[in-house]
Amino acid sequence: MNDPHSMSALNANNSVEEQAAYWFARLRADNASKGDQRRFKVWLEESPRHAEAYALQEEVWTAMQDSAVDDDILAMRQTALAMPAAANNNDWLKYGAIAATLLVLVVSMVMLKPFEHWNSSDSNDPVEQLAQAEPQSSPIYKTAIGQRSTVNLPDGSVVELNTDSLIQINFSDERRDLILLRGEVLFDVAKDANRPFVVEADGKLITAIGTSFAVRRADDEIRVTLIEGIVTVDEQGSGDSTPGAVSKKQLRPGEQLVALGDQPFRVNMINTDTVTSWKDGRLIFDNEPLGMIVQEVNRYSTRKLVVGDPTLSDMRVSGIFQVGSVDSFAAALEASFPVANSAQSDEGDIILSWKE
């Protein structure tokens, strides 16, 4: 199995403050390991600046631990970033820097540690309300729109959450159960023949022992893509004698199962590199209709693309695009296809139309 940290390792492009925020969050995660502690010690001893930046993160956390991680904090960050750089008071410079890195800390904590079970009044999302009602012993991990994260489970398995995803972990001595409540997750499962690894998604049960596979949940459609190993997919609560039960399927590497509502399972061969390209920050499309591509790109941004002319939706597009920037995607379309994107809606969305 690959080193679970290799996909999220910090590099020289990260500021010292961002590295400190990462380590502050990483060491407080429920799944922090001795290996994390060793790597942190090496990082801490590399430079006195590292120790200073980490101490500052601890100072921030002490001051902010009683505050909620909500829009008010993000607004504070924006206010701090808007302050003049040449402020007279050195404290303003100091705490402006803290505010500038606070979002990194908050994002890292969301990605690396189960979020607290907020009161249901804090969220209008019924899926999150359901998750928050679960016992404290069932940790929940989530990503916001545009975020990705890697979580190391106690059994040695690794899960990678794609944009806007929510998953609940229910491990016991007998079983390894997980519930995909929303979004898309890639699983790299540690082998344990005595404890089945079962992912439940909208009533579908995906069972593996030691393997790599992806599950995507969107509305009433579930997609299971097998990278390596073997998995079985079944309907929750069904049996061979259940009238009308969805057939149980066993997948082979390179196959994708599509479950849509109560319809029979469909299994197709698929390019797994394309399906999982999001973990490297890329989206790969091969002769796909623009309407479908726009839906996929919109998953990674709060700012949306809108197809202004319905006939444009059928235009076929191939290419590799970076996730997260609808502006870059629209610019690439305009440069390579007969598409214009100059118009914008009142909400700031980009409207695509035929180039005149």
Secondary-structure blueprint:
Blueprint (H helix, E strand, L loop, with lengths): L15 H12 L6 H13 L1 H17 L6 H11 L8 H23 L13 H7 L7 E3 L6 E4 L5 E4 L4 E6 L4 E13 L8 E5 L2 E5 L3 E7 L2 E8 L2 E5 L13 E3 L3 E6 L5 E4 L2 H4 L6 E8 H9 L6 E3 L8 E7 L3 H11 L2 E2 L9 E5 L2
Parallel strand pairs: 5-6, 15-18
Antiparallel strand pairs: 1-4, 2-3, 3-5, 4-5, 5-8, 6-7, 7-10, 8-9, 9-12, 10-11, 12-13, 14-16, 17-18
Helix pairs in contact: 1-3, 1-5, 2-3, 4-5
H and E order: HHHHHHEEEEEEEEEEEEEHEHEEHEE
Question: How many H/I helices?
Answer: 9
Rg of Cα set? 22 Å
Quick one: biggest sheet? 13 strands, mixed
What is the strand content?
25-35%
N-C termini distance: 52 Å
Mass-distribution shape: flat
**Helicity, as a percent range:** 25-40%
Mean pLDDT: 76
Tell me about this structure.
The structure is a single chain. The chain has 356 residues and is of the alpha+beta class. The protein has nine helices and 18 strands. It has helices at 16-27, 34-46, 48-64, 71-81, 90-112, 126-132, 272-275, 290-298, 326-336; strands at residues 140-142, 149-152, 158-161, 166-171, 176-188, 197-201, 204-208, 212-218, 221-228, 231-235, 249-251, 255-260, 266-269, 282-289, 305-307, 316-322, 339-340, 350-354. Strands 1, 2, 3, 4, 5, 6, 7, 8, 9, 10, 11, 12 and 13 form a 13-stranded mixed β-sheet that branches. A three-stranded mixed β-sheet has the order 15-18-17, covered by helices on one side. The chain has a two-stranded antiparallel ribbon with strand order 14-16. A hairpin with a 2-residue loop joins strand 8 (212-218) and strand 9 (221-228). Helix 1 (16-27) crosses helix 5 (90-112), helix 2 (34-46) crosses helix 3 and helix 4 runs antiparallel to helix 5. It starts with 15 loop residues before the first helix and ends with a strand. The model is unreliable at 1-9, 63-122 and 240-245 (pLDDT under 50).
